[in-house]
Specification:
The chain is an alpha/beta fold. The chain is 39% helix and 20% strand. It folds into 2 domains: 99 residues, Urease, subunit C, domain 1 (Roll); 339 residues, Metal-dependent hydrolases (TIM Barrel, Alpha-Beta Barrel), CATH 3.20.20. Strands 1, 2, 3, 4, 5, 16, 17 and 18 form an 8-stranded mixed sheet that branches. A 5-stranded parallel sheet has the order 11-12-13-14-15. α4 links the parallel β7 and β8. α5 runs parallel beside α6, α8 crosses α9 and α9 packs across α12. It is globular.
Length: 455
């Protein structure tokens, strides 16, 4: 019996000494806690089957297929873009250049093209906010069949709007509240879990969509605010109907210009400096001018709207990089229209006014999340992070806006958005830390998607 006990004890000791095997191990990581903004040095991240299985600060024995020495560099969660139109990456917004349905060999091409626009820059998950309804089944297949070398995709299907003669292919047109209920149910049965409500959606259909979505547990996002149309729903009205997640902080002023007189006065102000709105770039610069106008003429109404959004614990996407690109050159884009030095200076001032409001939204507890809404999405996201830090946002807060806030709004924060045990190993190892200098957002980086290095 003594001999048997000794053999058993020896076996147990040997088992305890056998090192655990992991697919990937990252050592010497300076790990960012996305919730507190704190960085913990000398962490080891253990990854199996694309998931983080442990994070430790000791030197337990292990074996691994891939060992990465982070050399005390910053390691953060990867990014999430919550407002993407795939046509922006497929064909620069031109629907005539892509097929009515995506199928066969074209699926591989378009998936690779979409991935190339985001993943090399640290964005590993996107939420599509509008495309032809016929494309939805193909995108849902990508959702159900994720790949480590491909972008993770969620889709809202076509943006829901009331039938009014507009033929934009990215909308799903509804003729009645009954049809609205039916379409929401059909989307749910397909596997869609996020819906986009467009500003062309009238109150009867709007209410039907919200009620049906709530009954099914779907998340609803609203682009609310009709340009030059005071008859459209305002954010205050949408809040009362139960909508709490909104698109584009830049169009908040549209909900404050509620009469034809408001729009007439604003148009006179804009035209005095920029001329008549007859191109998309001028329309976008007019959005910036609205912040100056509402600051000067609608301050109390804007303050009240911010309080209403805070009370509803609302979230709102950014889309600030797209506006910035209209009048300023970047490392990857040039303005489409040449503006005078005075117009550029005024737009820069208007942008700063908008960012003052953005900071107030953030400080009030309204969750900002990244939504680029344009081509070159991965690069635009990095531009947005820099712009946020240039206008008063703490860099650690910006990292949370770009990761966890988007994951929470999309209902996937149990899978991504922070680095913790049980979540996907979607992370960035920074060659130079953005926490030390925001210009490092565009520095070299190692990107892991599902625990595999993306080349």
């Amino acid at each position: 019996m003594k001999s048997l006990y000794l053999v058993l004890i020896s076996c147990l000791c040997f088992a305890c000494m056998t090192p655990q095997h992991y697919d990937v191990v990252i050592t010497n990581a300076s790990l960012l806690d996305i919730h507190t903004g704190q960085v913990t040095a000398r962490q080891t991240i253990l990854i199996n089957a694309g998931l983080i299985v442990d994070i430790q600060n000791d030197t337990k024995r292990f074996t691994t297929d891939t060992l990465i020495d982070a050399q005390e560099k910053l390691v953060s969660p990867s990014f999430i873009d919550t407002h993407v139109h795939p046509i922006s990456e497929f064909a620069d917004g031109d629907y005539s250049l892509v097929p009515d349905t995506l199928q066969g060999d074209s699926l591989v091409y378009y998936r690779n093209k979409l991935t190339a626009g985001f993943l090399p820059f640290g964005t590993t998950t996107i939420l599509m906010m509008g495309h032809p309804p016929a494309w939805t089944p193909a995108f849902l297949k990508w959702t159900r069949q994720p790949e480590a070398k491909q972008l993770d995709v969620l889709t809202s299907g076509g943006a829901l709007a009331t039938e009014d003669g507009n033929t934009y292919p990215g909308h799903h047109r509804l003729n009645s509240p009954q049809e609205a209920q039916q379409v929401v149910q059909e989307y749910y049965d397909l596997g869609v879990r996020n819906l986009k409500l467009y500003w062309r959606l009238r109150p009867p259909e709007f209410k039907a969509v919200i009620a049906t979505a709530d009954s099914l547990g779907l998340r609803t996002f609203g682009h609310i605010g009709g340009f030059q149309d005071p008859t459209q729903l305002t954010i205050s009205e949408a809040l009362k109907m139960g909508l709490s997640d909104y698109e584009h902080l830049s169009i908040l002023p549209c909900s404050l210009l509620t009469t034809p007189e408001d729009w007439d006065n604003f148009n006179k102000q804009f035209e005095a400096h920029f001329g008549e709105v007859d191109t998309e770039p001028l329309l976008l610069l007019s959005i910036l001018e609205m912040f100056r106008y509402t600051r000067d003429h609608k301050k109390e109404a804007f303050d009240q709207l911010i309080d209403e959004l805070a009370a509803a614990e609302a979230s709102i996407s950014t889309t600030i990089g797209f506006l910035y690109q209209q009048y300023q050159a970047t490392s990857f884009s040039e303005p489409r229209t040449a503006f005078s030095a005075e117009q550029i200076a005024r737009s820069e001032e208007n942008f700063a006014i908008m960012m003052t409001f953005a900071k107030r939204l953030h400080d009030k507890g309204i969750a900002l999340r990244i939504g680029t809404d344009t081509k070159n999405g991965g690069q635009v996201l990095l531009l947005e992070l820099q712009l946020l830090t240039e206008h008063g946002f703490n860099t650690a807060e910006v990292m949370k806006i770009a990761s966890y806030n988007g994951a929470k709004s999309a209902g996937i924060d149990h899978q991504v958005g922070s680095l913790s045990v049980g979540k996907q190993a979607n992370l960035i190892i920074w060659e130079q830390s953005p926490l030390e200098n925001p210009s490092h957002f565009t520095a070299n980086k190692i990107i892991l998607k599902d625990g595999k290095i993306y080349h």
